[in-house]
Amino acid sequence: MPNDIRTGIRPETQKASPLRGGIEAIVRADHGDPFAILGMHQDGEGQPVEVRTFIPGAERVWVIDSANGDPVAEADRVHDEGFFLATMPDRTQRFRYRLRVQFPLATQEFEDAFRFGNVLGELDIHLLAEGTHMKSYERLGAHPREIDGVAGVAFALWAPNARRVSVVGDFCDWDGRRLPMRKRMEAGVWEIFVPGATAGQRYKFEIKGAGGDLLPLKSDPYAFQAEMRPQTASVVHGLPKYGWQDQTWQQTRAHCAERTAPISIYEVHLGSWARVPEDGDRFLTYRELADRLVPYVKDLGFTHIEMLPITEHPFDGSWGYQPIGLYAPTSRHGTPEDFKYFVDACHAAGIGLLLDWVPGHFPTDPHGLGWFDGTHLYEHADPRQGYHQDWNTLIYNFGRTEVQNFLLGNALFWLDHYRLDGLRVDAVASMLYLDYSRKAGEWIPNQFGGRENLESIAFLKRMNELTYGHHQGIMTVAEESTAWPAVSRPVYLGGLGFGYKWNMGWMHDTLEYMAKDPIHRRYHHHQLTFGLIYQFSENFVLPLSHDEVVHGKGSLINKMPGDDWQKFANLRAYYGFMFAHPGKKLLFMGGEFGQWREWSEARSLDWHLLEEPLHQGLQSLVRDLNRMYRDLKPLHQTDCDPAGFEWIEANDSDNSVLAFLRKETDDPEHQVVVVCNFTPIPRHGYRVGVALPGHYAEVLNTDATEYGGSGVGNEGGLESEDTAWHGRPHSINVTLPPLGTVVLERKAG
């Protein structure tokens, strides 16, 4: 008798008839509850057990008793596509079994994924549904584990609106019919244990939307490793294991992030700091970066490295700011263990490591989070809320507890498992305002009619509470470009809870000033002083970041006016002003030696420039500025305290000269006087008032010959005179070098 053409079910197999609809759904990969059909089943206690399996391409299937390895029954093919059913009348108790399968070219024996129970426990499901599982990454994603003595991988995915989800990968020939997952209705999470799957295998999720449409294969949002671009599959890895050697750092780092500590950050794009030209201009590995970048940063005296985003991203040109794998360090430089080696090397050198973290938006690549389960799951449905017009990216729906859980868990993940020392949070301004970069009618007000994104604000506060609450000695830093109040104040005092905020206003004003010809600077003098009006309203970082040396803005050295000598002198004087100014410091790579070309992510820095004296000199100055900043308490202890700063001369616009005082709280008589001359004219006998008598040692002069300067200075220091000046009872008679900054430390006695 021929098969039923409509179904493919063999009519002689009567025992399959009650399952006709379920079998058809399994074969079409359209069953929402595959465990109800597949695996071992029995109609009731004492009834014969039967095993049902769907193996496309199989010719014969036997059920094997795992206890002794003997065949128990050969299954009947009940559907032409490869659905088999074995009934065992003499077996009325469930037992562990394997399947022996004959294919046209080979016979294989393996465990049946559908004989295993739930992957996630009830508590996990409850916390995931509630959106309060702060270690959701330990349950969702792909985790190698052993169940019932069988090694395999447990997969779990949040996709509540999907009609069907299958895991596909190297372990099932990427066939979405083979491993449909069980849905835990309480949390909208799909799960399956795949016996025999191993670390290193590639995988994705095949998702059918609620309307039956098959979506593009999706990468795992919780993957710990991903393929090297342009490939986009996730890689089974599990939480990376590593024998940490940074116990000393962990015990002492609590002081490294304090407002009173010297914090000088070297911002790095790992893919372009240096390349390996003799090997196809490839990226450095994490281990090579540990051996080359870390000693370099240590030698220059920076206290922290801040990495542009190394979370996995498909497009090099995004610099990492359009991430898809938030839980995976990019494979461009090696494995997760290699990245841990790099972190360990930083800590061994006494250097903190910060991650540029991007929780505000994500790209539209089809394998990513957008339209994840056939609905706007991670993003807002309304483009006025869910689409970034500037960046062609999607905006997280912070009002959804599961989305917050995903992101909050990610913040903790990098601090927990990679022992990073902080997060610089990207584009905070875009998260705070509903009308960010939008015209009237292009945004939706909040429930009170305002422009503030209340859900995002609540998320940022919670993120800071959790990160600071769980990890002593870390820091969070906001890239926030508006006048939003109390960004770096604790949540319990009404702030957003960040440790620090980038001072974008200072950066903009001072760089605009420095770009002007010195003859015109007198008319823009207060671009240098204006920042002190609001300097202590936040805990500020002074950022000369990657954003200032791209998109036609020119490198820092090329922003400076004049001939080559004057460009370097200007930049040296500016760095001196910056390092003496209140606020923590940040300098993007290449700025320390005066790279001429704009930065590009596609090539190495121009290290050959260090063969030239002016570039060497600038690098030496940065090294000495970091040493000075670290060694002199007045220059770092009161970075965030108005008690540590006084203007001595803020209004000498005619000469483009500034003079100010820095002092420490522990010893107010330990004072540092800073004088900046932003014209190319040396000024001899420039009198500067001081409150205390003593010897004022010249601890740094940006015009020193070893830095490439003209050598105009104060011969090591000055004695104060009892001549009142600038409203102070004493004064010093300073020689100001052309386009130079002089730093003088008071020595009592």
Automatic annotation (TrEMBL):
The keyword Transcription regulation does not apply. The active site is at 426 (nucleophile), 479 (proton donor). This is 1,4-alpha-glucan branching enzyme GlgB. Residues 267-636 form the Glycosyl hydrolase family 13 catalytic domain. Catalyzes the formation of the alpha-1,6-glucosidic linkages in glycogen by scission of a 1,4-alpha-linked oligosaccharide from growing alpha-1,4-glucan chains and the subsequent attachment of the oligosaccharide to the alpha-1,6 position. Pathway: Glycan biosynthesis; glycogen biosynthesis. It comes from Azospirillum rugosum. InterPro entries: A-amylase/branching_C, Branching_enzy, GH, GH13_cat_dom, GlgB, GlgB_N, GlgB_N_E_set_prok, Glyco_hydro_13_N. GO terms for molecular function: 1,4-alpha-glucan branching enzyme activity.
